[in-house]
Amino acid sequence: MPQLVTVKVNRPDRRPIRVWVPVLPVVLVLFPVVVLVVLAAIVACVVFRIGVVRALGAGWRVVSALPGARFDIEQGRTAVLVAIR
Fold first, then answer.
1. pLDDT of 32-80, one tens digit each?
2. What string of H, E and C letters represents the secondary structure of the chain?
């Protein structure tokens, strides 16, 4: 499970902005929303006849694979880097 998300915004002619977001406190605060999303995913699996256990297992594998991922986004002269650790 990821533990830290780093977001860095490089802006032209200004100092870059860097924000560190710890994942665990954010998940704990958003836990009611996470529960609703999981319940909605279970309902969607039943409606579309997808194996619930396999779908939740695949989702967990995706979340577990996130540490080490980097996303670079550039728009014009502004760049955003998101690194998941």
1. 999 999 999 999 999 999 999 999 999 999 999 999 999 999 999 999 9
2. CCCEEEEEEECCCCCCEEEEEEHHHHHHHCHHHHHHHHHHHHHHHHHCCCCHHHHHHHHHHHHHCCCCCEEEEEECCEEEEEEEC
In this prediction, residue 2 carries a pLDDT of 86
- Sheet containing 70-75: order of strands: 17-22, 4-10, 78-84, 70-75
> Residue 68: left if φ>0, alpha if ψ -120 to 50, beta else—which one?
left
